[in-house]
Amino acid sequence: MLVLDTNHFSEFRRATEAARRLRQRLAVTEDAAALTVITAEEVARGWLNEIRRHREEHRLLEAYRHFQESIEDFADWLMLPWSEESAAILRSMRKERLRVGTQDLRIASIALAHDATLLTRNLADFRQVPGLRVENWLD
Question: What is the per-residue pLDDT across 107-125, written as a single tens digit (0 to 9) for each?
């Protein structure tokens, strides 16, 4: 199984050469591709912050459109949950005092719970997580 980190999912949604290559690789892989509920939270939080920031009608229209598109895109993906197993893995990792952000540790915990490879641009942080397989399919 492959799990897309938030940066890979965000790129997947764009009209860039990197996104085209990512979509192409995902289309031919035999591995199932998934997102975590943490990525959904991060994307939603980002668009909600944009909505709160803008008062101009045209900017609000654009922010709400992107927010809605994100929600609709989530429906096309297998969404991996935050679970008791993920929480236990996170507790174990916190004892190791890794210098990795909480949201990244949650994504890593979910990927580990599903024995998945995490697709991310953030190799430096995620490589600190013992046992986590990581790859960057964008660069």
Answer: 999 999 999 999 999 999 9
Q: Which positions ≥6 away from 134 have C-beta within 8 Å? A: 117, 118, 119, 120, 123, 126, 127
Q: How many CB atoms lie within 10 A of CB 110?
A: 27
Q: Please report the pLDDT score of residue 98 as a whole number.
A: 84
Q: How far apart are CA 33 and CA 79, in angstroms?
A: 9
Superfamily assignment of 2-135 in CATH? 5'-nuclease (3.40.50.1010)
Structural domain boundaries in the chain: 2-135
| Residue ranges with strand state E in the chain | 2-4, 33-36, 78-80, 117-119, 133-135
Cα–Cα dist 20/33, whole Å: 16
- The pair of structure tokens assigned to 128 is 């600190």
